[in-house]
Every structure is written in structure tokens, then in C-alpha cells.
Amino acid sequence: AHPVTLSVQLHPYGDGRRLMLSRDVTALEQAEAMRRDFVANVSHEIRTPLTVLVGFVETLQTLPLQEDERARYLGLMAQQAARMQHLVQDLLTLSRLEGSPPPGMAEWVPVCALLRHCEDEARALSATLARTPAQQHRFVFPTPGQAQAAGQVAGIAAELQSALANLVNNAVRYTPAGGSITVAWEPLADGGARFTVRDTGPGLAPEHLPRITERFYRVDRSRSRDTGGTGLGLAIVKHVVQRHGAALEISSVLGQGSVFGVRFPAARVRAQAGVSPAARS
Ligand code: ADP
């Protein structure tokens, strides 16, 4: 049984009798606790880079520094500023998503464009994170022909693009050097389709899975920060996916890797005209 919070009010009548009103405010109280947590988290996430930034400014103001040292400090300051910028961008994205109505059938977005965007971003990110070419990830993406045959999905292109790319980027960020990442788009028997990203990263323990899409929930704090994470990525993905009537599916085996999938319902998927279902498989 879950604890329940009741708000009880006693209204006296003039004749000594009282009317007792009780209201279940459990949901209200939970919402308020979540709001408090969120504000505390945001403040903490901003305070850390800000403290570093203020420290560097003071150093630059007070210490006579060599040119190369100055340049190094400025570089570190730029990193902290970028971190805050990403956080603010993600916060604005979240609040915009929370405040706007679902996109309906908006437009038909070619799946091949979504896949190409994911591939470009993931390869660039892998190249940035790897210190040597040998450390880059091995990628398997649908071939151009397969991507073309995948057809179209209904929704807001920019939202779908950033959500799917976010899942692929996470696979890159959490999978150690040299690991492999496989991206697929498969038609489903019910007429829908599923986008999947499979990685050979650290995987997630079962107890983390239900919480992984909560804002600021992180399993590996330092890996998240080192690779530019804000802790809001999956919360944004989940919003976009739900707004599009799709479902986010996560399965993972600790020590072996994870699979992040987005399942689109039949109503949102349109096969490529002129491509027979047989050619699509
Ligand atoms: P972050 O900015 O921290 O990456 P996300 O919301 O994108 O925030 O992800 C939340 C947490 O989920 C991450 O901090 C990480 O611990 C975990 N995570 C996400 N994707 C993966 C993955 N592919 N493999 C392992 N852990 C992951």
C-alpha cells in the first residue's frame, strides 16, 4: 500500500457541530516534491561550472600569466561556459515540449533523412572522442538502398531528428573505444516500424532502467559530464517519442550492451511508394 496524504479541514457551524472536509492531496504533494527536486538539480548543475568559471576569472585578474597559460585557462573557461549553454538549451527544449500540444500528423518525414542525420552526427562524435583512429567505433547503418526503402514517418522533422540522433550519440558516448554500434529500421508485422540502436557499451543494471529517462538521472556521472551530457537527453527523447504516439523501448544487459528502440504505430508509418514490402525486408 502506498502512503496517502490527506488534507483535512474542519468548518465549525454556529451550533457547535463541525463539518470535516478531507481531500487526497498525494498527487499534488508528489508534484511539488518533483518540482523542488528539479529546481535543486538545475541550481546544482549551474553552480558547478559557474564556480569553476568565477575561479578562473579571478586567477586571470590577479596572476601575471604566460601567454600559453592564459590560453589554457581561457580554453577551460570556454568549456564551462559551453556546458552551461547546453544545459540552458536542453531546459528550454524540455519546457517547450511540455508546453506545446502533440504535433498530430504534422508532415511526412523521409526515414532516410533521419538515418543520414544520425549517421553524420555519430561518426563526427566518435571521431571527436577518439584519440586515435583505431579508437573510433565500428558502425553498422542501413545501406542507402535500405534507408530509401524505409519510407516515411509522420511528425515534426526537427524533433524526430534530434531524438533519434540523441539515442545514437548516447551509444557513442557510453560505448568504450573500438566498440560497435548498430542502427536499424525494421518494419513490424502490425504495419508500424521500429528504430533501434544496439551498442556494446557497459549496459545498465535492471534497477536503473525504470529511472533512466528521469531528468538528471545518471548512472555514470563522470562519463556523462566528460562527454558533454546534461542529464536531460533521455527525458527529452521520451517526451518527443510520446508526443509522436510512439514508445521508447530499452533493454540492456549489464556488461554487454544496450538496445534503445523507438516503436512507431502503423498510423505514423508510410512505406515508400513503388517499393513492395518484399523489397523492404
Ligand atoms: P546524459 O547527458 O547524462 O547522457 P541522458 O538522459 O542522455 O543524460 O542519459 C541518462 C543516463 O543514462 C546517462 O547518464 C547514462 O548513465 C545512461 N545511458 C544513456 N545511454 C546509455 C547507453 N547507451 N549505455 C549505457 N548507459 C547509458
Automatic annotation (TrEMBL):
- Molecular-function GO terms, alphabetical: ATP binding; phosphoprotein phosphatase activity; phosphorelay sensor kinase activity
Gene Ontology terms: biological process: cellular response to phosphate starvation; phosphate ion transport
* Primary location recorded for the protein, binned into one broad class: membrane
UniProt keyword Thylakoid, yes or no: no
Top-level taxon: Bacteria
List, for all copies, the residue spans of the domain called Histidine kinase.
41-268
In short, the EC number is 2.7.13.3
One GO cellular component term: plasma membrane
Chemical reaction(s) catalysed = ATP + protein L-histidine = ADP + protein N-phospho-L-histidine
Q: Which UniProt keywords apply?
A: ATP-binding, Cell membrane, Kinase, Membrane, Nucleotide-binding, Phosphate transport, Phosphoprotein, Transferase, Transmembrane, Transmembrane helix, Transport, Two-component regulatory system
Record protein name field: Phosphate regulon sensor protein PhoR
> What taxonomic lineage is listed for the species of origin?
Bacteria, Pseudomonadati, Pseudomonadota, Betaproteobacteria, Burkholderiales
Q: Tell me the part of the parent protein that is shown.
A: 173 to 453 of 458
